[in-house]
Amino acid sequence: MSILEQKAAALYGEQKYPEALDIYLSLYKKSPKTEKYSIFCGNCFDALGDAEQAISFYKKASKLNPVSLTSLIALANVYYNHGDYKNSEKFSYRILKKSPDNVSALLNLGNIAYCRNDYETAFKFYEAVYKNNNASYIAVVNMANTCYDLKRYVKALDYARLALKLYPSSVDAYIIRGNSYIELGRYEKAENNLLRALDFKDNNPWIYNALSRLYQKTESWDRALDAGWNAILCTKETQKEQQINFGYLLYECVEEKGAETAAYYAAKWKNAFPDNKIVAYMAEAILNNKPVAKAEKEYVKQIFDAFATDFESTLSGLEYQVPEYIAEAVRQSFRRESFLPIKYLDLGCGTGLCALAVKPLLGWSEVTGVDLSEKMLEEAKKKHIYNRLIADDLSIFLETEKNSYHIITAGDVLTYFGDLQNLFNGVAKILNKKGLFVFSVSENNCNDNDYFLTPSGRFIHNNDYILRLLKKTGFEKLSMERKALRNEGDKVVYGYIVTAKKILTVEGN
Fold this sequence. Notes:
Elements: H1 3-13, H2 17-30, H3 35-47, H4 51-64, H5 70-81, H6 85-98, H7 103-115, H8 119-132, H9 137-149, H10 153-166, H11 171-183, H12 187-200, H13 205-217, H14 221-235, H15 240-257, H16 259-272, H17 277-287, H18 297-307, H19 311-316, H20 322-333, E1 342-347, H21 353-358, E2 365-371, H22 374-381, E3 388-391, H23 394-400, E4 405-410, H24 421-430, E5 431-442, E6 451-453, E7 459-461, H25 463-472, E8 475-488, E9 491-502
Parallel strand pairs: 1-2, 1-4, 2-3, 4-5
Antiparallel strand pairs: 5-9, 6-7, 8-9
Helix pairs in contact: 1-2, 2-3, 3-4, 3-5, 4-5, 5-6, 5-7, 6-7, 7-8, 8-9, 9-10, 9-11, 10-11, 11-12, 11-13, 12-13, 13-14, 14-15, 15-16, 15-17, 16-17, 23-24
């Protein structure tokens, strides 16, 4: 190794990547056909977060030495680390063709399957690594974690125990054991393992989250809230997911214990994060100190992005029937008046459940779906029922949309809006004369207000308010049926399925 190479390697080891890169680039320019210089440049670019340049240099190295695994492994890893699972998968399989037991490729493929929620496949790849090397801690702890997600809690405990033999201070193994014991109802053992994890890393929010869940199970609400509070203190502003978890914890506290304890923490939370819009919204849902007209955009996007892959399976357990109710309302009121295609807009389309139920009733149609969550739209796209899918805030979309529609539906969408006037005006603006607007609302059974923000972060509406607003914004009510929309815990959420027709006369706003 030359003196320059030694200096560059030392700088790289000290994480002085720009300085190391300068040397490696100079070496590469002098010897562009030397494989290792391309790889070293790629490593520096990767460390600096420039995936495009890293990939370019790794590909140069691969062309210089097609039989080498080094550049293929680097390509598979950089694609995986930047979320390009398709290309990572491609290069990982190329590696396995040359080296069937290659640990890096097998782990990559396992991780890709895991990220796709294909836990069975993920486990098989991790198991293949373990069979070739039973001292691989990474393979064992990943097997334990995957067994947990597969709800094989006893197996998860077995593999986590093995992981601790290989790495006695494994925080991940203790967390897996703690969570598995929670699911098995062995709460004392769960607490012992989670507290042991804290001994090794007392600033890990997931340990506190697990403890909070444990204390909820044992109805120790003060301890649950204290653990949840510690989780967000560990992350500050860095993880929106932790803030949302705490908001849901407060909501569950209200449901189980009442508002007083939750209100104390909600006020404390709001004061601690005064500039966080998600916190402000969720805390206000608990406190209800001032009127809120609409759900916070970032809150809605975050919960549905996180919820997207499990959305439909979760709803199936809640006896959720809104798409079917809306489809039935459309069936009763929709009349085709020409042979031209029906233009149908699915507002807040989510994963496409409403359009899936409604589209067969329309015949020849062009279907547009709009949703704030890009992850939900990815799931909707898989159904192949939409001509257009648009990621946008509904209010902004309705203000700017130039097309007009024969029918617009909004299933379980208005629950994230309190004041509906602007939304109804926007729908009226793009709905054809005699066009149908079919939607669901949850009924306000708490007070006489037009709308009310509940501790769940969802709005409920007074049916008289809906009727007044429809008339004011140019609609004629065709039907308004009270229905059980879904379950929420051990309660049934009731609401209305409303069918309205656009008419000419619009009262002054």
